[in-house]
UniProtKB/TrEMBL annotation:
Keywords from the UniProt entry: Isomerase, Membrane, Transmembrane, Transmembrane helix
InterPro entries noted in UniProt: Thioredoxin-like_sf
Membrane-spanning ranges: 26-46
Lineage of producing organism: Bacteria, Bacillati, Bacillota, Bacilli, Lactobacillales
One function term, GO molecular function aspect: isomerase activity
Designated name of the protein: Predicted dithiol-disulfide isomerase, DsbA family
Length: 249
């Protein structure tokens, strides 16, 4: 039996995912845990902090040995809408109510566009959100139907199918269903994430506001011997953790 076959048989017995790399005189083995971590990420698709949270989760996913399943749930954060329009109201002629309506409507339409993209695959929906946030949040472009359809075309979605799904009652029902999920998980602001680990079926962890990679690693388990000595900033993060992490029974 070849050496790599022996390694594979051994790893299968441990119930680990793995890759075996052969290169002349050495064998490299990349071992990945079979454990599953599922993350529900609640975001405002047009929000700066939500854009940062999405990037942090994506980076975190690449650094973990476990299988990470991320479910993005876009939603309108009405408290954020109010804060945004109060800041803008000094320089704009329209009333706060009008601004609230416009800002929340843009976010709502972006949520529907995300779900319509998801009808053509989860990866396409994530790509739509990524490009949308790059253009609106990072480049400062206004959210319009023209921008939405430009993204749809550029990422390779079927435009006709997207339009049909975007305008359908089913997409609106999916959005409302996700709002119910947010309510059940007691999510009141964005960004927020709920973390489920398959070794703990009784409870999950809700992380509000302070979505940082170090905190995520701490919550999901990390070898303390590999962590650098905590400085004042790290101690401060740990104190924040108690306020922002809640157990869900």
């Amino acid at each position: 039996m070849q050496f790599d076959s022996i390694i594979k048989k051994f790893l299968l017995g441990l119930n680990y995912k793995y890759n075996v790399y052969l290169n002349h005189n050495y064998v490299g083995v990349l071992i990945m845990s079979s454990q599953l971590i599922e993350i529900f990420l609640f975001v405002d698709p047009l929000g700066k902090r939500c854009n940062n949270a999405r990037k942090i989760i994506s980076k975190f996913k690449t650094e973990r040995p476990e299988r990470i399943k991320v479910r993005v749930i876009p939603m309108v954060n009405f408290s954020k809408v109010y804060r945004h329009t109060r800041r803008q109201s000094v320089s704009l002629d329209s009333s706060i109510v009008d601004q609230n309506n416009q800002f929340s409507n843009n976010t709502y339409q972006a949520c529907l566009a995300f779900h319509a993209s998801a009808m053509q695959g989860k990866k396409m929906a994530h790509k739509f959100l990524e490009v949308l946030q790059e253009q609106v949040v990072e480049e400062g472009l206004p959210y319009t139907d023209e921008l939405m359809y430009s993204i749809v075309k550029n990422i390779g979605l079927d435009v006709e199918m997207f339009t049909e799904d975007y305008e359908s009652e089913l997409t609106e029902k999916i959005y409302k269903k996700n709002l119910n999920i947010a309510a059940e998980m007691k999510v009141k602001s964005t960004p927020s994430c709920i973390i489920f680990k398959d070794d703990d079926e009784e409870e999950a962890i809700r992380l509000n506001k302070e979505i940082e990679k170090e905190i995520l690693h701490s919550l999901c388990g990390i070898d303390n011997s590999l962590k650098p000595k905590a400085d004042d900033d790290e101690v401060s993060k740990e104190s924040k953790l108690e306020k922002n992490v809640l157990k869900l029974k």
